[in-house]
Amino acid sequence: xxxxxxxxxxxxxxxxxxxxxxxxxxxxxxxxxxxxxxxxxxxxxxxxxxxxxxxxxxxxxxxxxxxxxxxxxxxxxxxxxxxxxxxxxxxxxxxxxxxxxxxxxxxxxxxxxxxxxxx
Length: 119
Known about the structure:
Distance between the termini: 30 Å
Mean pLDDT: 93
Number of helices: 5
């Protein structure tokens, strides 16, 4: 099963981590988070129950276009486009250009785990 690991880090902590990696002081482990959010609130805003259902539908149905996904979910294409572009920016979905400019959404994992340090 493919798992996407998500982490929570403040902007300052994420920047410090990125700079340490760039300087060669930190070598990320293969199981470190690949996607980072600034807060649990920002994570929750993107992964609402409605959006988790959307990801599950994409994963299960493999739609060939946003129009096909709109038919499967009953959501407007324009709404889906906005939501999926946000999810793409956050690394939660991949959008592929297909025939005649159609956008094909893909979810390349089966689950998401959240890593949250308490300090």
